[in-house]
Amino acid sequence: MIRLGVPSKGRLMEQTFDWFAERGVRLSRAGSDREYAGRVEGAENVALVLLSAGEIPRELRAGRIHLGVTGTDLIREKLPGWRSHVEELAPMGFGHADLILAVPDCWADCEGLDDFATIARDFRAEHGFRLRIATKYHRLVRAWLSAEEVADYQLVDSQGATEGTVANLTAEAIADITSSGETLRANHLKIISTPILRSQATLLRSVAAGDADAVQAFADRLGL
Ligand SMILES: Nc1ncnc2c1ncn2[C@@H]1O[C@H](COP(=O)(O)OP(=O)(O)OP(=O)(O)O)[C@@H](O)[C@H]1O
Ligand SMILES: O=P(O)(O)OC[C@H]1O[C@H](OP(=O)(O)OP(=O)(O)O)[C@H](O)[C@@H]1O
């Protein structure tokens, strides 16, 4: 049996169901909206596993699911050395979002990363602690800032409502996903660089789960 992990709620689940339906495989919830069991029609020997999008990378790495749908941002953040754990079978064309660094609109002298580095250095000298960036993407943000040679900052963990941390005085800047940009605008924040990462929903194969022939047969069925 091939185990297929799909986000259990929201737009990501619905668009995933649509993507498979366009390829002749009907995925659905087995019972009520609150029941996390699924049904698969149009393919033999495939079981639907409804999971949190954030847990799908770990399930793929462990080989508990053969295939999984999640954002590339979550794969790269949660699986160091992701290429040895998963194979990207298909970008799915939805769930587009950019991981960006943003600062308050009113920072008129901060137009880019060079300005940010200067402000961060001055901030530390003036306040005696490092400028705080709120994010849940710790690994990606650290790696990117290190490559860009920005050092005078600290990350503060924020697992949701990250854009609110600046107004709430728990951070000076944020690194989060943006799509329409509305949440940034509503919270008076501006993007100050090219994206740290461009993400979209992707169908991935687990290396550890094995059953390569059966997985390949299903991928063929989907026309991949
Ligand atoms: N506004 C958005 N537009 C498009 N994609 C988004 C948006 N926000 C988040 N995503 C993408 O959706 C995926 C899941 O996001 P997130 O980690 O917020 O999960 P969630 O919906 O909170 O689920 P869970 O709490 O169950 O883990 C991520 O890959 C992310 O890039
Ligand atoms: O650019 P926009 O179209 O406004 O989208 C961006 C928002 O979407 C995501 O939040 P989500 O709604 O998933 O909630 P969260 O804050 O709990 O992560 C993300 O964390 C941003 O807050």
Automatic annotation (TrEMBL):
Keywords: Amino-acid biosynthesis, Glycosyltransferase, Histidine biosynthesis, Transferase. Its EC number is 2.4.2.17. One of its GO terms (cellular component) is cytoplasm. Pathway: Amino-acid biosynthesis; L-histidine biosynthesis; L-histidine from 5-phospho-alpha-D-ribose 1-diphosphate: step 1/9. GO terms for biological process: L-histidine biosynthetic process. It comes from the Bacteria. It holds the Pfam family HisG. The keyword Phosphoprotein does not apply. Catalyzes the condensation of ATP and 5-phosphoribose 1-diphosphate to form N'-(5'-phosphoribosyl)-ATP (PR-ATP). Has a crucial role in the pathway because the rate of histidine biosynthesis seems to be controlled primarily by regulation of HisG enzymatic activity. PANTHER family: ATP PHOSPHORIBOSYLTRANSFERASE, ATP PHOSPHORIBOSYLTRANSFERASE ATP-PRTASE. This is ATP phosphoribosyltransferase.
